Fold this sequence. Notes:
The chain has one domain. It is built from 5 helices and no strands. Helix 3 runs antiparallel to helix 4 and helix 4 runs antiparallel to helix 5. By secondary structure, it is mainly α.
Amino acid sequence: MRTIALTLVLLSSIIAGCQKQPDSVAAEPKQDTATIKQFDEADTKIGKFLDQLDNPNTSLEVRKQILCVDYPNVYIQQYAPALLKLSPNDYTPDKLDHDLAIALDYYKDKFNIRCEK
């Protein structure tokens, strides 16, 4: 009886050990280095834009250039696409568009800037 029990335990251990384990790498989206680099560069540029906007010595002309041209271009062309590739489950294009609008509206209101279209 002891031999049968020991054999069953040993067999079940072998079967459980031989089953294919879930591949955690396959579950996560691939993050290629080019996308990570693109995101990091865009994030750095946006950080510099925000520093300039918050700097009291920045002229109104420079603030307008950042808010109306530079920041939206970097965000839309570089930052958002990279972020969507790196975290597709956390962000959507609509959410990122909304976040951009909130940030731009805040600074435009703060400095009373109107962008021509």
